[in-house]
Amino acid sequence: MNPYEKKRRWKFFLLIFAILIGIASVFYTDSFVKKMEREEANQIQLWVKIQERSMFLMDNDNFTEIVESVRKNTKAPVVVVDSSGHITTYFGLDSTKTNYSTDNKLTYDSLYFVHQLSKMKAQHMPLEMNILGTSYKAYYKDSFILTQLRYFPYIQMIVIFLFLLTAYAAFSSSRRAEQDHVWVGLAKETAHQLGTPISSLMAWTELMKSKFDAEDDPLIAEMENDIKRLEIITDRFSKIGSKPILEDHTVYIVISNFIDYFKVRTSDKVKFSITGDDQVRAMLNIPLFDWVIENLLKNAANAIENEGSIAINIIENLAKEQVFIDVTDSGKGIPRSKFDAVFQPGYTTRKRGWGLGLSLTKRIVENYHSGEIFVKDSELGKGTTFRIILKSSLTYEPTTA
Fold it and tell me: Of 281, 305, 20, 330, whose CA–CA distance to 160 is shortest?
C-alpha cells in the first residue's frame, strides 16, 4: 500500500471513529432525555391528582405544604383550560407576559398564551381533571432544562466537529511547513552533493576529447548532453525553496527543445507531436518548467503499455490573456474519482514509484509560475489529457473600428 492510500485509510478510520462517538453521545443523551421526560410527566400527573383533591383538603395545613412542594418541584409549564377552552389557571410561564402593569392596570399578553398553548398541544396529550364535577384539561410542555438537553448532543457534535476541523487544519499546516523545510534542505543538499561529480565528469570528457582526438565523436557529444542535463537537474534542486527568476519565453520553443531531448531517451514505440500556437509567450523559469514537462511526459509514457502517442497542443486564450498547454497521451487513463488524488504526495499506481512527480509539478506550476494544472479529461483504456494554464506575457489591446 502506497503512502497516499495509507493516509487516506487513516483519515477514513478517524472519521468513522468520530461518527461512532457522535452517535453514542446522541443515543446516551436521548435515553437520558426520555428518562427526564417520564419524570416530568409523572410530576404533572401528581400535580393533577393533588389539584383534584385540593378542594376537599383546603383547610389542612399539611396538605397545603404538600401542594406548594409539588408545585415548586414541577419544572414543566402548565396551562389548565375548562370545557369551553378558556384558561382557568397556569404556572411556569413567563411572568413578564402573563401579568404586567400598564396604566396602573394588570394585564396580560393574550397572543403569548395562544402561542404557548399551541406548543403544549403539539408536544403532549392533555391530562384530564375533574374538580367538583367540572371537567378540565391540563396541558404542559417540556421544561427549559429538558429542551436544552434535547439539543445538547447536536450542539456538542458541532463543537467537536469545529474543534477537530481547526485542530486538523493547524496540524496539517504545521506538518506541511515541517515537510517543506525537510524537502528544501534535502533538495539543496542534493544539489550540493551533485556538484562535485558533475565537475569531475566534465573534466574527464575534456580529457578524453584531447587524449583520443575525439572532438567530433557522437558518443562523447551524448555524454556531454547528459552532463548538461545533470547540471540542469542540480540547478532545479538548488532553486527549491527560493523564489525563481521568471523570464519571457516562447512556450512552443521551450517545449519543443525539451521534447527533442526527451524522445531519444524514450521507447521508439511512443510517438511525440507538438501543435498549436508557436508564437505565444509566457514568463517561465526554464529549468523548473522543463521539470514540469518532464514529469508529465514520463507519466504519459509510463501509462502507454505498448505503442502509443503523446501530443502537446498549445492554445492561446486571447480573452483572458492565458496560455493553455494540453498534454494528451493514449495510455490506460485515470478514473474520474482520482482526478484530484493524482496530485497528492505519495499517490502512485506503479509498484516502484514514489508518487511525488505530479505533486511537485503542481507546486512548480501554481507556486512558482502562478498558474494552474489539472486533469482536463480522461477515459479508461483511451488516454488522459492534463491541462496547464499560464499567464500570457503578451498584452492584447482591443481593436477599435
Answer: 20
pLDDT on residue 400: 53
Q: Tell me how far apart the alpha carbons of residues 326 and 318 are, in angstroms, rounded to a whole number.
A: 17
Question: 135 in the Ramachandran plot: left (φ > 0), alpha (ψ -120 to 50) or beta?
Answer: beta
Quote the CA–CA distance of 325 and 250 in Å, as a whole number.
Answer: 13
Q: Which residue has the cell 561529480?
A: 197
Residue in 312, 299, 302 with CA at minimum distance from that of residue 254: 312
Measure the CA–CA gap between 140 and 119, rounded to whole angstroms: 9
How far apart CA 69 and CA 90 sit, in angstroms, is: 16
Residue 296 pLDDT: 95
303, 339, 364, 391 from 244: Cα distances, Å: 31, 28, 10, 16
| Type of residue at 83 | S
CB of 324 within 8 A of CB of 314?
A: yes
Q: What is the pTM of this model?
A: 0.54
CB neighbours of residue 13 within 10 Å: 10
Nearest to 267 by CA among 309, 318, 231: 309
What residues does 372 pair with on adjacent strands?
A: 389
What is the mean pLDDT of the segment spanning 186-198?
79
Least confident of 161-165, 219-223, 332-336: 161-165
